[in-house]
């Protein structure tokens, strides 16, 4: 059963929620404080009016002036405190949000990452949280302040002269009506579309850059650029549509919020005629002239804040979608494997979206401490078999057992502690070689790491790097060859020292020197362990305890090397091909030594 969790902004807040609330309240207080100087200035004007023509009679000008400055400063200070609170809360909340998404992602089945482009995922994690951060730190307090202002405004407007108040309110009400129309459900859809097209563009950009080597070798620049180009065009079209659709409401909004005087002045002229005390009326009128432009500023703030509110809501929806991706069910009881054996019991597995199964009814046992080899044609399902052991995917039917226990009943951490996997495609982090090796056991000491590196024959790699084992790879011209990367990944596995080792041998790196170094490293790694080795070079596996030939997802032959040769099936043919194609002896009878060149199959 899929349990949908509704993720809200405050689900990441924890105890920082109160800080956000305090920040918003302070922002509201600051908004009110900012209004007071308007009254002070108006008092100055009033005194001047009363004292005219001899303005020296105005006694309290300095008092009101100082008061205006004091309240303005106080407003700024309180606003500063408000922003401090919201910033601290925003940083923490967004940190929680990022870490929850990253932690969740680690638990997802690998298939999820195949379906999602990495550009898309990066955007969800990075930019969704970025948007949320700026919303929490700036827009939310702004919005509170901006909503407090109109309320205070309405009060003030009516205190002086309700008729002028009412007239000034017309454009404000109009502005509000337009804002709420602009941020209606149609606009929410627009914002989602906008984010989607940005996501697509991002994804295609990443794909395009990744594919550049292929594009260059096959000279298909235009063809491969097309998809990227299409997403850019799609984005452009969207932006044009959006801008055009906003022309009328934006113009109406701008006109209405700036039209205060168009209402206020005619009303003033009309009302002054009937005023009993025209001086008093004029004074009130001046207050409105001073104050109403401030409302315009507030309305603009609300407009921009409401756009950002929608962006933040969309960001949260995307984070929520990621967090609702179902991870593999965690074992309820968490049984411990009894030993380091591996059993496949009538296992079948089909990749999501594939029509034919990658593995059909596969059964075998690898007893603790023995080495079993998987061979067979490309696409036969070897990597798939290996990846079902650490539960990268869950089987459709049958059971995979480690130490006699169904892998679904073993706690993920225990299972991961028990299994090391040396992958076919080696991924090195953009970090030092040392950290790359240590990634399999972060608490390992430097000596442990160096010992593992020596066992995997990495010394000569360090020797040619400028900072030895501390050289950062993946940047600045520091790259490793395929064979070297494989040795680093073997060092990783040796350091981890897990009782079960899965080796998916890479096909390519066949220079004889490297091959022999790798062989030696493999022997070290495999000593005393349960090993499943996927071999492309048959020389690696002659001595395996058991060899299985996998074709089209089924085991079609099995036995040890000599039994399989005797059987005369696929393995025997593969061996024959291997022997006839791999060894050229560049021998001359007079040569003191023979050089053996090995080619890959
Ligand atoms: N992530 C995936 N999603 C969908 N199908 C996949 C995926 N990975 C592999 N397959 C399919 O499953 C089948 C078995 O693939 P697998 O990688 O296990 O073969 P293999 O024996 O390891 O091949 P090779 O010797 O080339 O490494 C193939 O038909 C492949 O197309
Ligand atoms: Mg494979």
Strand fraction equals: 5-15%
Q: Which small compounds were modeled alongside the protein? A: adenosine-5'-triphosphate, magnesium ion
Integer average pLDDT: 83
Tell me which CATH architecture of the largest domain applies here: Up-down Bundle
**Structural class by secondary-structure content:** alpha/beta
CATH class of the largest domain: Mainly Alpha
**Molecular shape:** elongated
Give the count of helical stretches: 19
For the CA atoms, what is the radius of gyration?
A: 36 Å
Can you tell me the residue ranges where pLDDT is under 50 for at least 5 consecutive residues? 584-601
What is the terminal separation in angstroms?
A: 47 Å
What's the helical proportion of residues? 55-70%
- The protein's oligomeric status is single chain
Overall tally of structural domains: 2
CATH superfamily of the largest domain, by name, is ABC transporter type 1, transmembrane domain
What summary fits the major beta sheet? 6 strands, mixed
- CATH fold name of the largest domain: ABC transporter transmembrane region fold
The strand count comes to 12
């Amino acid at each position: 059963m899929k349990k949908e969790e509704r993720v809200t902004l405050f689900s990441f807040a924890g105890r920082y929620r109160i800080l956000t609330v305090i920040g918003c309240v302070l922002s509201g207080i600051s908004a009110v404080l900012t209004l007071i100087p308007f009254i002070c200035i108006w008092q100055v004007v009033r005194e001047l009016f009363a004292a005219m023509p001899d303005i020296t009679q105005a006694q309290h000008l300095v008092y009101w002036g100082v008061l205006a400055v004091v309240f303005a400063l106080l407003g700024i200070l309180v606003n500063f405190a408000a922003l401090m609170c919201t910033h601290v809360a925003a940083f923490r909340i967004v940190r929680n949000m990022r870490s929850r998404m990253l932690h969740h992602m680690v638990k997802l089945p690998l298939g999820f990452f195949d379906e999602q482009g990495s550009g898309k995922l990066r955007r969800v994690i990075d930019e969704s949280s970025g948007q949320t951060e700026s919303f929490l730190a700036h827009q939310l307090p702004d919005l509170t302040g901006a909503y407090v202002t109109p309320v205070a405004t309405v009060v003030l407007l009516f205190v002086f002269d309700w008729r002028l108040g009412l007239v000034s309110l017309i454009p404000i009400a109009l502005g509000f009506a337009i804002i709420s129309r602009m941020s209606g459900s149609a606009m929410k859809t627009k914002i989602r579309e906008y984010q989607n097209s940005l996501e697509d563009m991002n994804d295609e950009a990443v794909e395009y850059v990744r594919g550049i080597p292929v594009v260059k070798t096959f000279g298909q620049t235009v063809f491969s650029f097309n998809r990227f180009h299409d997403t850019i065009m799609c984005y452009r079209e969207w932006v044009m549509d959006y801008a055009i659709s906003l022309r009328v409401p934006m113009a109406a909004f701008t006109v209405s919020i700036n039209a205060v005087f168009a209402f206020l002045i005619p009303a003033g002229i009309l009302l002054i005629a009937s005023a009993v005390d025209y001086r008093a009326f004029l004074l009130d009128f001046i207050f409105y002239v001073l104050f109403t432009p401030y409302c315009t500023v507030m309305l603009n703030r609300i407009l921009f804040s409401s756009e950002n509110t929608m962006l933040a809501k969309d960001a949260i929806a995307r984070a929520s979608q990621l967090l609702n991706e179902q991870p593999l069910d965690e074992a309820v009881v968490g049984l411990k494997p009894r030993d380091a054996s591996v059993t496949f019991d009538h296992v079948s597995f089909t990749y999501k979206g594939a029509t034919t199964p990658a593995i059909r009814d596969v059964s075998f046992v690898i007893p603790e401490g023995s080495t079993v080899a998987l061979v067979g044609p490309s696409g036969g399902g070897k990597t798939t078999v290996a990846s079902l052991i650490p539960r990268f995917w869950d089987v459709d039917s049958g059971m995979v057992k480690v130490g006699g226990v169904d892998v679904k009943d073993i706690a993920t951490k225990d299972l991961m502690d028990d299994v090391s996997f040396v992958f076919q495609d080696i991924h090195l982090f953009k970090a030092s070689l040392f950290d790359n090796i240590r990634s399999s056991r972060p608490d390992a000491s430097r000596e442990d790491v160096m010992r593992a590196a020596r066992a995997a024959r990495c010394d000569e790699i360090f020797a040619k790097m400028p900072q030895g084992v501390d050289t950062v790879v993946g940047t600045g011209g520091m790259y490793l060859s395929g064979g070297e990367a494989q040795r680093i990944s073997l060092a990783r596995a040796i350091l981890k020292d897990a009782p079960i080792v899965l080796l998916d041998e890479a096909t390519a790196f066949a220079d004889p020197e490297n091959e022999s170094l790798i062989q030696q490293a493999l022997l070290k790694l495999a000593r005393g362990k349960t090993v499943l080795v996927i071999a492309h070079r048959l020389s690696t596996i002659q001595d395996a305890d058991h060899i299985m030939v996998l074709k089209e997802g089924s085991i079609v032959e099995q036995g040890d090397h000599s039994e399989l040769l005797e059987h005369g099936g696929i393995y025997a043919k593969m061996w024959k091909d291997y022997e006839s194609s791999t060894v050229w002896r560049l021998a001359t009878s007079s040569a003191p030594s023979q050089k053996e060149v090995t080619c890959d199959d």
